[in-house]
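Review this fold:
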Amino acid sequence: MEPEKMIADVHTDKIIAEGVNGHFCLKTKHVDFVSALEAGILLYTVGEEEHYIAVDEGILVKCGEQVLVSVLNAIEGTALQELQQRILKEFKKTEAMHRASKIAMKSIETDLLLRLLEFEKNH
């Protein structure tokens, strides 16, 4: 799967995220670092301003002063409440798509079974 879009390209003072081994905080002077990410909230600060990104599982790589994050899905918000509303909206959309795909699969399975029965009856 290739990345679909870039969410943020900023100079940050601090990043807080959740890796598979727990939460961690990175600043520009920290050593190079790689971590697999858990689904959760990634927080980054620019000056005194906090920014939030809800992220799916992925990977974070810090090399020098550059930090790259690649995840399956990400939703950015300026406040946690706004982010929560956007996540719920996305979940509802995803849930509706999942239900529609289940209905389509059941229809395909039923059609296949009917065709197999018809084939068996004719041969």
User: Anything to note?
Assistant: Residues 54 and 121 are 54 Å apart (CA to CA). The longest helix spans residues 80-122. The longest strand covers residues 40-46.
